[in-house]
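Hi L.,

You mentioned the student needs an example of a multi-chain input paired with its predicted structure. This one should do, with 319 residues in total across all chains.
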Amino acid sequence: MNIIRRKGWEIRESQATPESVFLDRRALMRGAAFAGAGSLLPGLSSLAMAQADPTAAMYPARRNELYKLDRDLTPEATASHYNNFYEFGLSKNVFSAAESLKTRPWMVKIDGLVEKARDVGIDDLLKAMPLEERLYRHRCVEAWSMTVPWTGFPLKALVDFAKPLSSAKFIRFETFLDPKMAPGQRSFFPWPYVEALTMAEAVNDMSLMVTGAYGKPLGKTFGAPLRLHTPWKYGFKHIKSLTKISFVEKRPETFWETAGPGEYGFWANVNPQVPHPRWSQATEEVLGTGNRRPTLLFNGYGEFVADLYKGLEKEKLYI
Ligand code: MTE
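Structure written out for the whole complex:
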């Protein structure tokens, strides 16, 4: 668990994706489609390249201003070069290795306690979901943090789409399993990566299914094409490159509960007063700044989520 100290390029929140840029870019994309040949428009070559992703024209999405930041955004170059994606290696430097992740075609299986199980292609799913941008903090259990403009849709929208039965109490998420493509999956860990939430957590407005970052489709190192973000929980809950979403009655055992019982639990809510067995959680290294700052209960999002845990005080809510 190494913590790096990098002096950063710092950009401000206002640089994430201003609405003017969003509107201009949408207009430009419409123009390109109308012209029928993007390369005829000046300065469009990078946009044309981005269109290799069939959903590229959906970005940037309009920002949801409800979730405010208390700090600057992490520059994209920093956030995308300090990652945990064990399928592609144990170091933080998995950017190049993750390029071998093949993200199309990409099917997501929705099954378990639902009216009707189904397989849906990621591009069809995106067309059915309301995309928005949110600026969220991310606190890794390793005591570093970053702040990213994610794009995605509320997990609640996916729950509505899936039509779960009333007997469903938890959602279980699973990452792809393909050791040929992802060499890390040949290692001793209990693959595939699995995570889970209670239904109450899943339908809380903060739970976001992420499909983009920094105003464009999600980079592979961030877990393209679909990952989870629950910013009041430690980052290991934010499972990447999802292929299966199951509605279940019993609490699933997660990847990290199996790999490190006693160190990582199901709830994993951020709490500076509950140390990890091997290190303190009181402060965090803010990526790209060289600074530490105090960690906040529920990562500062208590007003939105603390009620979820009323009556659950006997649970190990913070590991
Ligand atoms: N999802 C999968 N499938 N594999 C992983 O190794 N690492 C987790 C989480 N999701 C991980 C994963 C951990 S420990 C963290 S902190 C975050 O992803 C890191 O997200 P980032 O690389 O976008 O910063």
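You could point out the following to them. The chain is about 15% helix and 20% strand. Residues 32 and 38 are 5 Å apart (CA to CA).

Best wishes,
N.
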